[in-house]
Amino acid sequence: MIDLIIPYYNNLEGLATTLASINYDIFDVTIVDDGSNSAMSLPETSKCDIILTENGGPGYARQIGIMWTENDYIMFIDTGDIFVSKEIQKKIPRVIQANPNANLISFPYYYKDKITGDSDNRMHGKIYKRSFIDKYDITFCMESSYMNEDIGFNRTCRLCTNAELIPIVYMSNPIIKWIENENSLTCKNNHTALYRDQTRALSLNAIHTINICRKNNINPETEINQIAIALYYWFVRTAAENPTYIQDAWDGARIFYKYFEKEIYPNKLSLGNQRLKQCLYYRGKVSFTINILRFAHDILTNEIIPNNYLT
Hints:
CATH superfamily of the largest domain: Spore Coat Polysaccharide Biosynthesis Protein SpsA, Chain A
Number of domains: 2
Largest sheet: 7 strands, mixed
Number of strands: 11
Number of helices: 11
CATH architecture of the largest domain: Alpha-Beta Complex
Shape: globular
Strand order of the largest sheet: 3-2-1-4-9-6-10
Order of helices and strands: EHEEHEEHEEEEHHEEHHHHHH
Helix content: 40-55%
Distance between the termini: 58 Å
């Protein structure tokens, strides 16, 4: 059996939809109620274990789920999301059996009716070997449990399994469909948080990842470089799309840059990075001149965003 962990908060309709899509011959289902206590009223929950916790966010809820379950493999599904079919879930044990050495198996998923995610850092469609998670003590970042917690967790898994030279197994057929729900635990206030909290969440989760890597003697130098560029991208995007939160974006990115100040060398930041290419679009929408080299220098030397970024 596989442990299927569902973080939940005050979304009975979404939870009912998710539970109805599950093949219970494949999964042991654990609902982690993140401080709402309303999941108890669903009749379908008779097939599940329910853990009641204080409110801590989706990362916290998933971490509690890991701690309280014990099967050899772990999978997550968010409240409101659904499996494509009960029949296709029968494929999962066969894939695990065919890949006994794999630490991570990744299925694509439907996102707004488009297939995506075969190699991204989201939780959807991924199966984790518990012994691998335990070996490297891979955990969710509690300092940023509400945003980018999935990116941080999966980045850590990717770096640790790469260090073992064990390939991630990528499958071709989606098994989960992401359902948009603005009131869900994982999506609440996403539009505002995208600008206000994104860079802070990225920084905190990235620091958490790098610390786990170092504890396991994994060299994170390349990843530090890539994250520094991603933070630059999100700062420029915030400045272009919602400048109300430009200081928030600056403050959030600066957490990471200052933490790794001695390891971020602006002249070594990769010019071929895809995020830098994406930045060209947003750079054309801001009133100030900016590039990765200037940004890295300025953010390391200025706690408050310089006036030339505000004109």
